[in-house]
Amino acid sequence: MTDEMMSLQALLEKSSDTDLLREMIGFAAHRLMELEVESLTGAAHGERSADRITHRNGYRDRDWETRAGTVELRIPKLRKGSYFPGFLEPRRLAEKALTAVIQEAYIQGVSTRSVDELVRAMGMTGISKSQVSRLCGEIDGKIAAFLDRPLEGEWPYIWLDATYVKARRDGHVVSVAVIVAVGVNGDGRREVLGLAIGTSEAETFWTDFLRKLTRRGLRGVKLVVSDAHEGLKASIAKVLNSSWQRCRVHFMRNALAYAGKQGRRVVSAFIATAFAQDDAEAARTQWRQVADQLRPRVKKLAELMDEAEGDVLAYMSFPPAHRPKLHSTNPIERVNGEIKRRTEVVGIFPNDEAVIRLVGAILLEQNDEWAVQRARYMTLETIAPLSHDPFVKLPAVAA
After folding, report:
1. What is the mean pLDDT of the chain?
2. Mutual orientation of helices 112-121 and 94-103 as an angle, nearest 10°?
3. How many C-beta neighbours within 10 Å does residue 199 have?
4. Do residues 279 and 263 touch, judged by C-beta distance below 8 A?
5. Is 188 left (phi over 0), alpha (psi -120 to 50) or beta?
6. pLDDT class for 359, splitting at 50, 70, 90?
């Protein structure tokens, strides 16, 4: 174990982390039991083998109380003999050891020897290094399957943003860009679309990321919301050919830098009058009037407004009900904030794979939370008219 590894105490201080850890503990415990029973029966589950010693005989349920919460276990039963997982034996530091296994595979994921030693410390027997490696691979496989899943239907709106974490590369600690895409589909549901990491937010990096999304099925994009990164803007135009919304919050920060400390409040109120208009044409008219009023005193600010008008007001051309969620990157900023909060526990990641492993699990957890929410992020009645898919229809109203 290294100091870079996420500690159990740090994880359990945060309730959402506790849920994630409990899920991963349950998954690993199930796989460890399956591997041990496989060695006792002489064959994998459902496998025909001449080396088979006995057969399985169902499962018995048992709740396992851990500091991460209650983990529901299904312990395999055998037709001949009996089986009881070693990590449930009394007076064993089983939970601590299993948590360490999860941490090693979940954060480090580079040394099967370390995982193997931890598994054996739990009293598990008959598990080879190849099986340990397979366990680690299955944990990664759950995340990879989520990040590479096909994107079905249309995605009218997507948000793109990046955050940075520290990782080791070639013996040096460097800042790694973690870019995330979040979208709303034709049903008004919000999902995490993808994740990628790189050394910088260069245009080629963003282009490769967006092309991968399109290969997975991303289509029907009407508006992309992001900051004004030049490489990202160029990639959006090249790959998605959609409208682009410059984050209003980021723009206001840039604009107020020209206003000076004394004038920021007044300038902010002036510009906000354009955002308060009811339609796109009125917003553009008001925007130009504000720019002209500011021009004699703050020429650079007026020029910035001239340049950014179409990009900052792009969201005004979309349904009024959607505008509060389209004018900025706030919907994805909250996701990035969660990533930042939980990656700070690790500090410095040992490699890029560890970044993908943890951030991917965070995004998978967030996506699952959105999936079970009863309310759509945008109502079907307001988002359906944006779709070109003839199969998208409003639900029938009960009589």
Report:
1. 81
2. 170
3. 13
4. no
5. left
6. confident
Closest residue by Cα to residue 108 from 346, 399, 393? 346
Q: Would you say 92 and 86 are in contact if contact means Cβ atoms under 8 Å apart?
A: yes
**Per-residue DSSP letter, 240:** I
Report whether 38 contacts 379 (CB < 8 A): no
Please state, for a pLDDT cut of 70, what percent of the chain lies above it: 77
Crossing angle for the helix pair 352-372 and 15-41, to the nearest 10 degrees: 110
Pairwise CA distance, residues 283 & 312, whole Å: 10
User: Angle 15-16-17 (CA atoms, 0-180°, nearest 5)?
Assistant: 90
| Angstrom distance (rounded) from CA 75 to CA 83 | 8
**CA-CA distances (angstroms) from residue 107 to 1, 6, 70, 356, 370?**
10, 7, 23, 9, 25
DSSP letter string, 201-230: --HHHHHHHHHHHHHTT-----EEEE---H
Beta bridge partners of 244: 224
Closest Cα partner for 336 from 222, 195, 216?
A: 195
Residue 203 CB neighbour total at 10 angstroms = 15
Per-residue pLDDT tens over the stretch 26-44? 887 888 888 888 888 877 7
Distance CA 344, CA 235 (A): 30
The one-character DSSP state at 322 is T
111 phi-psi bin (left φ>0, alpha ψ -120 to 50, beta other): beta
- Strand partners for 160: 181
Contacts of 8 (CB under 8 A, 6+ apart): 21, 67, 96, 99, 103
Q: Number of C-alpha atoms within 13 angstroms, CB side, residue 6?
A: 32
